[in-house]
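During the reporting period, our protein records have gained a structure token line. One record among many is quoted in full directly below:
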Amino acid sequence: MSKAKVLVAVRDAHHVDGLMRLAWEMSNGMNADVTALNVVEVGPGLPLDAESDVLDKSGKEALARAQKFAKQNSRELSTRLVRARDAGHAIVHEVEEGRDDLLILGYHHKPALEEVILGSTVQYVARHAPCRMIVEVLPPRHNQP
């Protein structure tokens, strides 16, 4: 029987520690491997494989913070940086490909109109992920985009 797997979707470095702490707590009870995922959303005007350190900078920072957290807690962590047009679709694809048992991701409240017009990554993933999912409601950031 294969070892259980937990996937943690981290959007930016600001909330990585809280999400990783939750992942460690859950993975300990499951005796699971943990992977941190960052999805870089790329607009339609740019190829997904465009050479650009600027595109990946925030994602690399979030994954580096996750690695630092893992090292401080003497844990092994795999990381993946993925480029996609839509984060929700990419997260579901990664869960399906990795056959993950649990997905953990954070959610920032948005104004109601923005939520209706633009939709929500969490809403999409909740409807389509083929595994259990934990959503942590994250506190607002002062400089949230």
